[in-house]
Design goal:
This protein is mainly alpha-helical. The protein has five helices and two strands. 60% of the residues lie in helices and 5% in strands. Belongs to the Skp family.
Amino acid sequence: MERRTFKTFGLFATAALITAFSACQNKEAKTTETKKTDSTTAAVAPSEKIVYVNSDSLLTKYEYFKDLKVKFEGKTKNAQADMQAKGQAFQRELAQYQQAAQTLSADQRKTTEERLQRKQQELQAYQQNAGAALQNEQATENEKLYDKVANYLKGYAKEKGYKMVLTYSKGNSAILFADESLDVTSEVIKGLNAEYSKK
């Protein structure tokens, strides 16, 4: 009997934050604003309206994502164990029939084979449905993860006066180079974890 294993949690890590997050705000120009240079200001100067977040670091340090990863690793493991148990039970039943087939009448063999064939089809359908249900749940959680991060960044960008927050991932990014002074990953992770710990 063909065995299919459920897709592991690996896609979860990459699907959530590959696209760029953008948070734009429309501010009226303040003509009375004075421009000062201060060596004690933040690494990103007010004139720099684009910053980035390293999604690799974000996914490894964001407690919400880590909890989701553990949750789905457990669900995947349980689903695989369940399918393995059902598959082994079917194989035992098939082996018993093969041993007893010689002693059965033609009608009995036909009836048993039809029953086993139906059972195998049901088992395959169950496996496919269980795998699809798990993938759908993962997709829903991916969307929630994306929304949590995007909504946080929207407020973060508004507070800081950034026009855009990009995401950077090694080997999978449109950003070839960015000055480290534009990296706000640590600050974002700290804020996301503080927000998550309150819930």
